[in-house]
User: What shape does this take?
Amino acid sequence: MSEQSYDVVVMGLGYIGLPTASLLATKGMRVLGVDVKASVVETINEGAIHIVEPDLDVLVRSAVNSGNLSASLEPVPAGVFILAVPTPFRNNHLPDISFVESATAQIAPVLSRGDLVILESTSPVGTTERVAEILAEQRPDLVESGERLFAVAHCPERVLPGRILLELVENDRIVGGVDPTSTERAVAFYDRFVRGEVIATEARTAELAKLSENSFRDVNIAFANELSMICQELEINVWEVIRLANRHPRVEILRPGPGVGGHCLAVDPWFIVASAPERARLIRTAREVNDGKTDWVFEHVVELADKFRHPVIACLGVTYKPDIDDVRESPALKIAQRLTGELKDRAEVLSVDPNVSDAFGVKLVSLEDALLKADLVVGLVAHREFRAVDPERLKEKIVIDTCGVFP
Assistant: This one.
């Protein structure tokens, strides 16, 4: 493997990094994907995948077989470096950019004059500037008269799991550099494969724009979740309320659920709160409402379960949204795990999810077994298999539908 033969190095081969790397490879670029897990590197070099995303297996196999995609534990020189690593939060919901800092430090030794570094990870305001600072500190030979001899920009991912390969190409992209030259270089790169509009701005604006997109949705989901709890208290059908209210031409209430999950909506609003804690009151409250909805669902299930001597509770779904295998920050999984742990001496808790094989600390069974045995059925994720359940099978059971899965 020649160290000079790569056009792009992608740091992180998860839900964003791997689709991006394989897409670029099928566009004729020589791409090296880098991951900290040897098992991931080995899997990809065999032309296989370690995550579930429609058509990704075909794309990766094609990219690897063409010779344009390979994987490694270490980066090598390339013209473009894409950072697609996790940006979680620590205790007290403070942003954790340690993975970004680590990936940046990894590429510093192989960086060359004129290279382009792009941060795709959704990040707190100022993270792109921090990437530029780390590279300048570790490679002072690439700084002349205070000017960086490399480009650094932010282009946040804006894709929906289940549609990633389509949306990587079709969606508009926001690109913001730490300086005008960096912005121009990054825009030119994305123009090579994005059919949507590539919109130029500066790094801090690009960072906040992505955080604002996810916070907007989180706030609106919080309204729906709060409304669902009010309806429960008033003994009113929340789904009927939303259906009728949405007949207004300027109203579009979202669907409530057991909380909010995923690597974006459940995390990113806290980055804004951390940046402006005294001003981000509505954003903070929305996060608290959505996290609180998960606790509320748990307590509601326990209250109903206590009406039985030793009930069987079926939790339908553990992923964070329908028809995918992603459990990151999943409220459904948190509820199932908590019921399994806290009711172990008072109930039997069964979990069903056709999209996952790892038990994640819960007892996974088939949908058929769960419906046969359950006294309580808790709809947590609207997977297509659950939406197809015959209502007659639920008539003799207590049904708690948190997500509108049952008609």
